[in-house]
């Protein structure tokens, strides 16, 4: 039931705060030790020499973020694959692969096809899904829940952040994050709420930047590039504004020729190592007439930026940076008088290949 909300999507965006708490309570005990992740899962991952994250759409995008946690905290090389590609062009595998399937529904046919192949080849697998007792959770060796509650809107929001949180917790459990992750995630939840409480500011950004626009761009580097592709998918799938999300450094290799007077370019700026470079890229598109909308973390902000994201640990910034993008997509779609929850041509769960 939508309750007081006009659309499920807005309700589900708001629920990200509570989902973060729920996951923290489920996966950490009072002393911040890991619980509810079977030792056999941790051992299976530790004894593998490479992780293969396989997923579709938004879940694939959550995998792009999770890769960073697995590589940085466990030291195990991690590849992220689109299930519909992997299914028919399986890459050369390592000696001891471990497969991680990410899925909201647990029923995505492309991902099921890969899991079938993986099981036939005898490789170990884990499904991280929102719908437990789904095909993907039943047929993998292991399963972990996302605990996000039913996600009704076709555009996935809370399942994305839940996937990133569970990936972080799992990587922390397998390796050494060097973080008090329970505490860091508590801070994330607080700051998610701060952003959500300011949702009206994204209505203004959506109207100012995207009204009467047919195309837009999201750019960023590193983890912001991973969020940029998800941000672009959110905006395009419900508002029908054709949006590309990509690594900011790629602009000069082609895409910059698309920039015209007033083309909206939304830049995500939360990663200190590359912030200077992204500032340069923002200046280059601005010089060609782009309407640049910079969404920067507090420590990297400059006057003229459109929105300031509160600071949390930089590796966890995707959990915050995606929320402005979700809200911009929501308001741009409302502004167009379209059905936010049910975009044309799309089903919530894609059960055909
Ligand atoms: C986009 C969206 C889709 C799904 C994709 C995978 O907002 O929801 O891209 O993420 O179809 O679905 P699941 O996660 O159920 O496997």
Give me the secondary-structure topology.
Layout: H1 8-14, H2 16-27, H3 39-46, E1 50-55, H4 57-74, E2 78-82, H5 83-86, E3 97-103, H6 109-120, E4 125-129, H7 135-139, E5 142-145, H8 158-174, H9 181-197, H10 200-210, E6 215-220, H11 223-239, E7 242-247, E8 264-269, H12 272-287, E9 291-297, E10 307-309, H13 318-335
Parallel strand pairs: 1-2, 1-3, 3-4, 4-5, 6-7, 6-8, 8-9, 9-10
The structure holds fructose -6-phosphate.
Structural notes for this entry:
- This protein is of the alpha/beta class and 353 residues long.
- 46% of the residues lie in helices and 16% in strands.
- The chain has 13 helices and 10 strands.
- The chain has helices at residues 8-14, 16-27, 39-46, 57-74, 83-86, 109-120, 135-139, 158-174, 181-197, 200-210, 223-239, 272-287, 318-335; strands at residues 50-55, 78-82, 97-103, 125-129, 142-145, 215-220, 242-247, 264-269, 291-297, 307-309.
- The strands form 2 sheets. A 5-stranded parallel β-sheet has the order 2-1-3-4-5, sandwiched between helices. Strands 7-6-8-9-10 form a 5-stranded parallel β-sheet, sandwiched between helices.
- α12 links the parallel β8 and β9 (291-297).
- It is globular, with a radius of gyration of 19 Å.
- The relative contact order is 0.14.
- The structure holds fructose -6-phosphate.
- Residues 41-184, 206-343 form the SIS domain.
- Keywords: Aminotransferase, Glutamine amidotransferase, Repeat, Transferase.
